[in-house]
Amino acid sequence: MSNFPPQTDKDAIENGLTFMPKFDENGLIPAMAIDAKSKEPLMLAYMNEQSLKLTLEKQEAVYYSRSRQTLWHKGATSGEFQKIITIRTDCDQDALILEVEQLGGGCCHTKRSSCFYRNVTADHTLSFRDE
Q1: Does residue 76 fall inside a structural domain?
Q2: Which of 22, 58, 99, 106 could crosslink 86 through cysteines, CB 3.0-4.6 Å?
Q3: Range of the domain at 45
C-alpha cells in the first residue's frame, strides 16, 4: 500500500501542499540530481515508490536501477553519497529535482564530477565540457 496519497483534482496537484508523486506506467518517476550550491546538473536517474520513501527517510539519494531492476543507494559501494538538501517537484508532480551535496568525490561512474560532461553540437557530434 502506498504512503503517498493518490493524485486527486488538478487544483490540489498544482496548487496544494500535499506531495502526490505521479509514477509512470512502470512505477517510476525521473529524478534529476543537481548540486545544491552551484545548481549544476549531476545526474538523471529514476525512483520508484520504495526508493523515494527511503530517500525521504535517509535524507540520502536512493534510486531505482532500471537496468539491474533493483534499489540503488547512491554511494553505498562507491562512497559518492548524495546528501539531500531539498527535493523539488514540478507542477504535475511527475518529475523531481534533488538538490544535493555530492560527497566522496565525483558523481559519475566515470569519476567525473557530473554525468553531463559533454555538449551536443549542431552537427550531431559531442564535445567535452570544461571541468
Answers
A1: yes
A2: 99
A3: 25-128
Which residue shows C-alpha cell 552551484? 38
Q: Is 71 exposed, middle or buried (0-12, 13-18, 19+ CB in 10 A)?
A: middle
pLDDT 10s digits, 13-57 = 999 999 999 999 999 999 999 999 999 999 999 999 999 999 999
Instruction: Please give the C-alpha separations between residue 130 and each of 46, 88, 117, in angstroms, as whole numbers.
Output: 27, 28, 8
d(CA 105, CA 35): 13
* Grid coordinates of 82: 548524495
Number of domain units in the chain: 1
Residue 11 belongs to some domain of the structure? no
| Distance separating alpha carbons of residues 117 and 108, to the nearest angstrom | 9
Q: Where are the alpha helices (DSSP H) in 1-131?
A: 10-15, 49-58
